[in-house]
Design brief:
Length: 197
């Protein structure tokens, strides 16, 4: 199988230099770079940014988002918006990362937010969805609450607070745990509260 066929046999839509080295089993940097340059010139590879490529323009943008920095995963407003917890639409993809940075690649805006290593590297509440990682709703909610204590959420109904309570310990933050308990109480009032209303 030639190099191009190997590339198209992969289900991935976005490739880093490291991905291409693995697919082509090429461990010599100069040979890898020459091969990449050749396929870019032939328009069989599209250079999206330094060290990141796509087979076609029909690539998965979330895959691109998590290819820029490793490790990283989709979270924050992106997950909350898709679940209906916040209503405002964002064109930006929000990503948890080791770095805080905002950039645009191929007209796609990305906002990376820095999480401490003990949180970022903890896999609890992060799903591997095909070729990118994405937070569960509860993990995204806690990520948001951790960085933005006073953030306003439009609709808390979709959130499973039992799952949040199981996840909150990974942040090692007592104030976050207290805020979470307050949200959990307000979203599920006790029977006593119901009788008094």
């Amino acid at each position: 199988m030639n190099a191009l066929a190997q590339l198209y046999a992969s289900a991935k839509t976005v490739f880093t230099n490291k991905d291409l080295a693995l697919i082509w089993q090429e461990n010599q940097t100069n040979k890898l770079n020459a091969k990449i340059s050749y396929y870019v010139k032939q328009k069989d590879l599209i250079r999206l940014t330094q060290g990141i490529f796509a087979k076609t323009k029909e690539y998965e943008v979330k895959e691109l988002a998590t290819s820029i920095y490793a490790p990283s995963y989709i979270s924050f407003e992106t997950v909350l918006r898709e679940a209906g917890v916040i209503f405002q639409h964002y064109d930006t993809l929000f990503v948890a990362s080791k770095y805080a940075k905002t950039l645009t690649i191929d007209q796609h805006p990305f906002t990376f937010r820095k999480l401490k290593d003990s949180v970022l590297y903890n896999p609890l509440g992060v799903n591997n969805h095909e070729h990118y990682s994405i937070a569960t709703l509860e993990r995204a909610f806690l990520d948001m609450l951790y960085l933005f204590p006073n953030y306003y959420f439009d609709n808390l109904a979709p959130i499973n607070f039992q799952q949040c309570l199981a996840l909150v310990e990974i942040y090692g933050n007592k104030q976050l745990a207290m805020r979470l308990k307050n949200y959990a109480k307000s979203s599920a009032p006790s029977i006593t509260d119901g009788k008094n209303s």
